[in-house]
Design a protein that fits this description.
Length: 80
């Protein structure tokens, strides 16, 4: 299968397609982390898709990790 011509309607549709997974570099950037910090502190807790050397992190895994590692709102902790 060949790649669509840049600027073609097919290429434009592909660019608008929602991302279901990110590379490690993209996931680190999305979390505001360096790749080293991401690989050391976050990646070990995520399920990854592995294909050869490629590692993809499903967006839902990043969302799950964020939810599980977020602090409770202060009101729920008995704060003022």
């Amino acid at each position: 299968m060949s790649r669509p011509r840049p600027g073609s309607e097919t290429a434009k549709r592909l660019r608008r397609a929602p991302r279901l997974a990110l590379t490690r570099q993209e996931a680190a950037a999305a979390l505001g982390l360096s790749i080293n910090s991401f690989e050391r502190h976050v990646q070990p807790e995520l399920r990854l898709v592995r294909r050869g050397k490629l590692r993809l992190i499903p967006v839902r895994e990043i969302e799950r990790w964020l939810a599980e590692n977020s602090d409770e709102p202060l009101e729920q902790l008995g704060g003022r």
